[in-house]
Write a structure and sequence with these properties.
Elements: H1 2-10, E1 20-21, E2 28-29, E3 41-42, E4 49-51, H2 54-74, H3 79-104, E5 111-112
Antiparallel strand pairs: 1-2, 3-4, 4-5
Helix pairs in contact: 2-3
The structure holds zinc ion.
């Protein structure tokens, strides 16, 4: 127990243990209840309309392209072959990334589609002067 327990504590969370919380009611959401692609979804507990910022999935897309290019470079590909292989490998790497990294990376910040202005003074976005 002792020593190995400490290692396990720093290990990435296993499937289903990802801490996703509804910002409205603070209830824990299951991975399967969250739409990671940026589409809106309803909280199963309170019904609040929620979404994951698109920057979260964009990170994966850019990351996959980077890994793909590095892999092709490591394989010795250059020029047009490098370009084509990067595109071809990009999607499978993106899928792998989503499967693996979703368990390792910090969970996305789930946001409310219609944030309540309980603590903040209500502000009309149309009247905002920049
Ligand atoms: Zn909720």
């Amino acid at each position: 127990m002792g020593g190995s327990e400490r290692i396990f504590r720093s290990a990435p969370p296993l499937m289903g243990e990802m801490l996703l919380k509804c910002p409205a009611c603070e209830s824990t959401l299951k991975e399967t209840e969250v739409n990671f692609s940026g589409r809106r979804f309803g909280c199963p507990t309170c019904g609040e309309e929620l979404y994951v910022p698109r920057s979260y999935s964009a990170r994966f897309v850019v990351g996959a392209l980077f890994i793909s290019a590095l892999l092709c470079l490591a394989l010795g590909l250059r020029g047009i072959a490098l370009y084509l292989a990067t595109i071809a490998l990009w999607f499978p790497i993106l899928l792998l990334e989503l499967i693996l990294l979703l368990r390792v990376l910090p969970p996305p910040k789930i946001k409310m589609s219609h944030p309540r202005t309980r603590d903040v003074a209500p502000r009309d976005p149309a009247n905002r002067n920049c």
